[in-house]
Amino acid sequence: MTPDFDTIIIGAGPAGLTAAYQLGKAGRSTLTIEQDPVFVGGISRTANYKEFLFDIGGHRFFSKSKEVVDLWDEILPDDFIERPRLSRIFYGDKFYSYPLNGFEALRNLGIVESALCMLSYGWAKVRPIPDPKTFHQWVRNQFGERLFSIFFKTYTEKVWGMSCDEISADWAAQRIKGLSLGSAVFNALTRSFRGKPKTGGPVIKTLIESFRYPRKGPGMLWEACARKIQSGGGEIRMGQKLQRLTRDDATGVWTVTAIDAKGVESHFTGARVISSAPIVELMNALSPTPISLFNARALKYRDFLTVALIAKSSRHFPDNWVYIHDPSVKVGRVQNFRSWSPDLVPQEGMTCLGLEYFCFEGDGLWNASDSELVALAKQEIDKIGLLRADEVVDACVVRQAKAYPVYDDSYRDNVETVRRDIALTFPGLHLVGRNGMHKYNNQDHAMMTAMLTVRNILAGGEIYDIWDVNEDAEYHEGGTSGEIEALKSERMTPRKVA
Q: Which of 4, 199, 255, 332 has the fewest CB within 10 Å, making it most exposed?
């Protein structure tokens, strides 16, 4: 049986499109199916409402991987702009710079509270919790219990909808790796007394001061990528939801069944499959039923929605976004779209803010009507003081399911069980990307997992273990990803995923 395509790719997000683009450049035939009927890019898409453009979640284009940066430039060579990074924290009716400005924090917290925070930090350094297992324990070791309570607890529990004692330390180590109170204070003092920090040393992603950004949002990059894939002969079919996935043991050919919004099924065959779909959706579709289906179904996801408020206001502020740590409001973060790129807000004299609410699909927030969500957002933005409710002239609600893989205390074991099951039972099936690997990562990490998967396919063996790609989109065993030359070395022994 000759398959229709060399590779079928499930999901047209950053990982899926990167795989399709690079396979196409290598002369391989690809089909990419995407559930969304309109947008490519997944959570990195750009939504459009009356020519106002919304970034779903905020995507700073910064990577330590030269290969990823080079690929961005190859796909979108003329439309990146350089943007200053500015974020603040709103807590207790006051704004705090993020990263920390030591003098501002001292002034806002007051001498007594600041002294208590420093004592708490000192105690954490003297008596750290050995081998921290939870987010609470990890942050307490890095910042002290008091700063954890002020600046981390409320916001984190808004994001995840669960106690910080239920969240794995893996999430903290991945998302704020390298940042501690000491490094933040040193960075603040360096900026205050010497200007910008010296270059040449390692960069903590949490402390970067500028980033690149597509003029019309991240979706601009992925729309360009999709066009390049199609012009090279690759197929992309929108509005196709994965229904079933089977493999012929005799020939090794995969059959993918997808269904559209009208219930019409389509069948495609491929020599292999790359999936960036959420693990639970992939495993539900696989036949025969995987032995790890129970583990896949135990994985959890956090969803969120953005209420974009369009306002006629003379009050502009420079932040890309503001983290809302204050427990008096439900909103978790406010994006300022004009500060991401002026091209996102087409009308002069107008501003557009995106209020992000974290929720679970099917809960009260998720199921609230658009009018109820807009009313809530107007009330809360007025309370925070970034806009007056009466300045809002229009609004739009964008929902995003399965935005964040949840790092609870059992996720690691569940993912490992699924991973082993696929490696042993379903050869030719590759997992990539954020939801495909259940890793809370950035798009550069998702892209690198796809790039290395393509190298494995072209090499005809498991040269790279993509699970060794870290959160900086660097390959653990190969060193800096821009310097990986393992495919050129005869000494590199192919390895199967355990």
A: 199
User: Do residues 10 and 33 make contact, with C-beta atoms less than 8 angstroms apart?
Assistant: yes
pTM for the model stands at: 0.87
Q: Which of 276, 281, 289 is nearest to 246 (CA)?
A: 289
Q: Percent of the chain beyond pLDDT 90?
A: 67
Label residue 104 exposed, middle or buried (CB < 10 Å: 0-12, 13-18, 19+): middle
Strand partners, 84: 210
Distances from the Cα of 172 to the Cα of 120, 153, 270, 340, 443, angstroms = 19, 12, 39, 25, 18
401: left (phi over 0), alpha (psi -120 to 50) or beta: beta
Predicted local confidence at residue 110, as pLDDT:
87
- Say if CB 221 and CB 213 are below 8 A apart: no
Name the CA radius of gyration of the chain, rounded.
Answer: 23
Residue closest to 317 by CA, chosen among 334, 333, 344, 339: 339
pLDDT digits (tens, 9 = 90+) for 123-139: 999 999 999 999 999 98
CATH class held by domain 5-46+63-78+217-297+409-488: alpha beta
What homologous superfamily does CATH list for 301-405? Answer: Protoporphyrinogen oxidase, mitochondrial; domain 2 (3.90.660.20)
**pLDDT mean over 173-191:** 53
Exposed/middle/buried for residue 477 (C-beta within 10 Å: 0-12, 13-18, 19+): exposed
